[in-house]
Amino acid sequence: MKKFLIATFLFSFIAAGCAGQSSTTNNNQASGQKASGGNSEQVKVYTMSEIALANSAENCLSVVNSKVYNLTEWIKKHPGGQKAILGICGQDGTEAFTKQHGGGAKFVQTLSGFYAGELAK
Ligand code: HEM
Fold first, then answer.
1. Which has the closest alpha carbon to 22: 12, 10, 32, 30?
2. Which of 46, 52, 70, 72 is most solvent-facing, going by the fewest CB within 10 Å?
3. Are residues 57 and 113 in the same domain?
4. CA of 34 relative to ligand 1 center, distance in Å
5. Distance from the CA of 88 to the center of ligand 1, in angstroms?
6. What is the sign of the dihedral through the CA atoms of 100, 105, 65 and 73?
7. Tell me, what DSSP letter sits at residue 91?
8. Are residues 100 and 115 in the same domain?
9. How far apart are CA 15 and CA 85, in angstroms?
10. Closest CA to 54 of 100, 18, 15, 85
């Protein structure tokens, strides 16, 4: 009986120890994965007031469909003229862009090359 009690005690001690160890290891792994995943997926989030400040030919941010684009380099290259792009710097250009270009693949693809981040909700 005494042996049985000692065996039971030892068994529960070892079992508890193992459980403790493995959960610690899991926690470490989970936080490790989170940290590395977070770093590689960092997306810049802009507020509308930050975008409003970028309203010039030297610094042009615009929003199309809730995504933020840095169009500074595109101003001088735009086949439809500089004014069209300058007109949407520092503001939401969704309506102007969509009215002119719709959802045409060519335009959407060009636009995606200037992706800078997301608009804060
Ligand atoms: C926001 C980012 C914009 C991008 C990425 C963009 C892209 C383009 C591209 C690639 C072309 C050449 C099309 C071709 O060669 O077939 C073009 C032309 C043109 N764009 Fe834009 N555009 C933008 C905004 C605008 C805006 C806001 C307007 C006017 C309000 C505008 C007016 C025009 C006009 C008039 C043309 C020439 C005619 C045409 O091809 O439709 N664009 N744009």
1. 30
2. 52
3. yes
4. 41
5. 12
6. negative
7. S
8. yes
9. 67
10. 85
The model's pLDDT over 19-44, given as tens digits with 9 standing for 90+, comes to 444 333 333 333 333 334 455 679 99
In whole angstroms, give the CA distance from residue 118 to residue 66: 7
User: Could you tell me if 106 and 34 are in contact, meaning their C-beta atoms sit under 8 angstroms apart?
Assistant: no
Stretch (H or E) spanning 70: strand 67-70
Residue whose Cα lies nearest atom 40 of ligand 1: it is 80
Q: Quick check: 43 and 118 in contact, CB under 8 A?
A: yes
Answering whether pTM is above 0.85, one says: no
pLDDT at 55: 98
Cα R_g (the chain), whole angstroms: 28
Residues 94 and 83 both lie in one domain: yes
**Residue of the CA atom closest to atom 39 of ligand 1:** 80
Does 63 lie in the same domain as 5?
no
pLDDT at 10: 35
